[in-house]
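Standup notes
- DV: blocked on the single-chain target, sequence here:
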Amino acid sequence: MVQVTSPAFKRNAAAALEDAGLQKALGKAKGAFLQRRAAAVAALPEFETLRDTGRDIKNHTLANLDFYLETYAANVERAGGQVHWCSTAADARAAVLDICRKAGARTVTKGKSMISEEIGVNDHLEAHGIQPVETDLGEYIIQLRHEHPSHIIAPAFHLNREDWEAQFRLSHTDLPKDRVFNERRDILAEARTRLRQKFLAADVGITGANFLIAETGSSVIVTNEGNGDLTQTLPRVHIVLASIEKVVPTLEDCTSLLRLLARSATGQDFSVYTTFSTGVRRPEDLDGPEEYHVVLIDNGRSNMMGTDFQEMLRCIRCAACMNHCPVYGAVGGHAYGWVYPGPMGSVLTPTLVGVDKAGHLPNASTFCGKCESVCPVKIPLPKLMRHWREREFERHLSPQGIRSNLALWAWFARRPSAYRLATRLGIRALSALSRGKGAFRWLPFAGGWTEGRDLPAPEPGGTFMARYQARQKEARR
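- DV (later): unblocked, structure below
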């Protein structure tokens, strides 16, 4: 099962900052996402209007979620499929295992699916003698390394080319010593060669779903490699894993969200493959599964409905928030300690595993607001992280030092005269201690700051309020 290590975020982050290989990978990879998204958005004049449309579609769906889920399930069954309603991760794992056992499966191919990571499907299948094989290129190398994804659309975001080569030579013991991996296509060719027989031999294929369409009972996946298509058309049985908020009302609604998804995620107008699956293979179809199962997973989502965190259920998993996050860009995804990293994970993880286990995550933010500004469905992520900080404080989960300092600040904040006096005295004391230097390398009671960076000394002119009032007087002259 997935081990939640969010409580170790500070230790994880410190290790990540010292990891030269990780820092190299982050430095090379993160810029490309930002540049491609910016170019794709600039080329679509109606992008901001489309964001409003996407937000409204998701809000409408969430407000009528029971209706659309029931409509979706009825249309899946009308197309010959089966829907398995699962309240918890354990229910979902049991449903998947039961389907695989009834199919006599020994090998299962998988497309990339974050919900499968959330519920721990791979470990569960392996524990019961069934071998899952990840077919997404990034997921494949992650599986070989016995790691979890560090990014929700680029699982191997944290790896460099030499890491791929080293792992292939370790795992593929028959690999010729003179085989070279100088180019990306060399890596792709090696993985493709190994996976071809896996595709053909698999009894069951498991995919996630970017969207579920109530109108038709269809599931939709987007990929750039085509592995998802092979995963869901070659085996006799296709299992779709999806959380309940993935449903949308109509095909038109889905296409509106698809226009947002690829542009926000990878800077493409559309992903290379956008595949709609509806039920079992019909007599006139050339390929497709004999059985089509949808495992619909709640796992805490319904508890978010009607709360301050319902807006998080609008998320379409594009990863734009983490691509633009300065914290994620510095420490990578594994530091977050569970399936969902970055700003979206800082909101979703405490919801799913508890703020007592993941309280560090909503605090791991500069609140620069970039995540909200790029979110394709306008989720107010800083506001939601602030709500988690409030919950943490209310439950006395935050450190006593933080609580005491906040209480002290609140006492002064409610007494403006005392606040102004204290800040004036503080500025004078710091100015005297700095002795004209630009910054402090050490200061009592500020070790948490000065341990990793200098503390700027006050500039001449007094407090902010004093300088502001002086400028206002000058402006009125």
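- Follow-up: The domain at 6-302 is CATH 3.40.50.10420 (Rossmann fold).
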